[in-house]
Design brief:
The strands form two sheets. The protein has a five-stranded parallel sheet with strand order 3-2-1-4-5, with helices on both faces. The longest helix has 22 residues. About 0% of the residues have low confidence. By secondary structure, it is an alpha/beta fold. About 40% of the residues lie in helices and about 20% in strands. The protein binds xanthosine-5'-monophosphate (XMP).
Length: about 325
């Protein structure tokens, strides 16, 4: 008789048996529901012998790093190290405009930073780190088995396969038999905050693929502020759970506007909001006109450097969810 509550018990004893009484485990957390639920399970199972690492890559959303730190340590009691590698990532992204290059740089830099941090961890037990935690879900398992075709290479998704090879770690994947809604149910039972449990997915390359063209700190700031306003208004309107994913992208073009009696010549924000069940196909979300009006006026008035706001009315296919 399979229930969430006994899934937790079974999984915890399975983890304890697998890891044994002394070995140490490391794992990356992103602030998303999968890695948080996985980290919480490990922390219940083996306490301080689980080491969570969060890497700030400089292209996270507004307040992200602070929120993750507070929620995971104070809220969930997870043994967490936050690494601020913003300058390293942004330095390597300088001058790069190609979306796939951005993905590769961020993926590779992530592995370097993670490995460097892992080497600094000195377990109290004196044991080596032997395992790597991954929040892989059932659909990811299926996809990696069945998709060998071109659909898999439309966009290179971030993965940490390199870590396993370089560090000779064994993998722990406590969520590998679960679907997203089951992970969310688990999150609720384990008292992970609602906001985190119901959070929209956020891509590994972060705002770097939502700042079209070159990623500079100034551009990231514009995209970050605009995104924050859009999401804030979506939550206020009670629409967050109806929408599968929403964000603001900063376009690499300038457009003429007028503020007071001044002519302006500044950048353009594209808002994107979609409904989907599997992210393979998606429909754009139909907002009330008054909602879009409010968001556009807030963004132009509150975010320096934006002269115009547009709403993306393209479905997937032919468009992808992200702009890059
Ligand atoms: P696309 O743009 O491919 O997005 O229609 C489908 C879903 O995947 C997310 N996405 C990514 N996630 N690394 C990730 O971890 C990536 O490089 C990446 N590219 C897209 C996207 O946010 C959406 O949820």
């Amino acid at each position: 008789n399979w229930t969430m509550a006994n899934f937790i018990d079974t999984e915890i004893s399975r983890i304890r048996t697998l890891v044994g009484p002394t070995a140490e485990v490391i794992g990356a957390v992103s602030g998303g529901v999968d890695s948080t639920v996985a980290a919480k399970l490990l922390s219940i199972a083996i306490g301080e012998r689980f080491h969570a690492i969060y890497v700030d890559n400089g292209v996270m959303r507004k307040n992200e790093t602070e929120t993750v730190h507070k929620t995971l340590t104070e809220g969930l009691g997870i043994n967490l190290t936050v690494v601020d590698a913003s300058e390293e990532f942004l330095g390597k992204l300088k001058g790069v405009t190609d979306p796939e290059k951005k993905r590769k740089i961020i993926g590779n830099t992530f592995i370097e930073v993670f490995e460097r941090q892992a080497a600094l961890i000195q377990p109290k037990s004196g044991e080596e780190i032997e395992f790597l935690l991954q929040g892989t879900l059932y659909p990811d398992v299926i996809e990696s088995i069945s998709f060998k075709g071109p659909s898999h290479t439309i966009k290179t998704h971030h993965n940490v396969g390199g870590l396993l090879d370089d560090m000779k770690l064994k993998l722990i994947e406590p969520l590998r038999e679960l679907f997203k809604d089951e992970v969310r149910a688990l999150g609720e039972i384990m008292e992970i905050p609602h906001d985190l449990v119901w959070r929209h997915p956020f891509p590994g390359p972060g705002l770097a693929i939502r700042v079209l063209g070159e990623v500079t700190p100034a551009q990231v700031k514009i995209a970050r502020e605009a995104d924050f306003i859009f999401i804030e208004e979506i939550k206020k309107a009670g629409l967050y759970r109806e929408i599968s994913q929403a964000f603001a992208a900063l376009l690499p073009v300038k457009s003429v506007g007028v503020m007071g009696d001044q002519r302006t010549y500044e950048q353009v924000i594209a808002l994107r909001a979609i409904e989907t069940t599997d992210f393979m196909t998606a429909d754009w979300f139909v907002f009330e006109a008054s909602f879009l009006k409010r968001v556009a006026s807030r963004i132009v008035n509150e975010v320096d450097g934006v002269a115009r706001v547009t709403y993306d009315i393209t479905s997937k296919p032919p468009a992808t969810v992200e702009w890059e």
